[in-house]
Amino acid sequence: MIDFLNFNEKDIDGFLKQANETSLILFKQGDDFINEYIATNELSYKNKLKDIEIMIEYFVKEERYEDCALLVEIKNKIKKYYDKQTELLLKNIK
Known about the structure:
Blueprint: H1 9-28, H2 31-39, H3 45-61, H4 65-93
Helix pairs in contact: 3-4
C-alpha cells in the first residue's frame, strides 16, 4: 500500500508524470478509449475538464505541443458531448 502522507514533492511529481503519461498513451490508442472516457459516469463533467486541464498544463511545461493539441481536441469533444446531452434532456422535458 502506498503511504501518500509521506510523499515528498519529488514522489508526487513522479506519480503525476506517470499518471499523465499513462493517460496519454491510452488516449493515443484510439477513439474507443477517448469515447469511453468522454461518456463514462465515473467522472463528472467538471472533473473530466479539470483532469484534461492538468494534463495540458503538464505537457505544456514539457513543451510537448502535439500532445497538448490532442488533449485540447479531447476537451472540446467532452464539451460537445455534454452540450448534446443537455440538449437531449431539454428536449425530453418539453
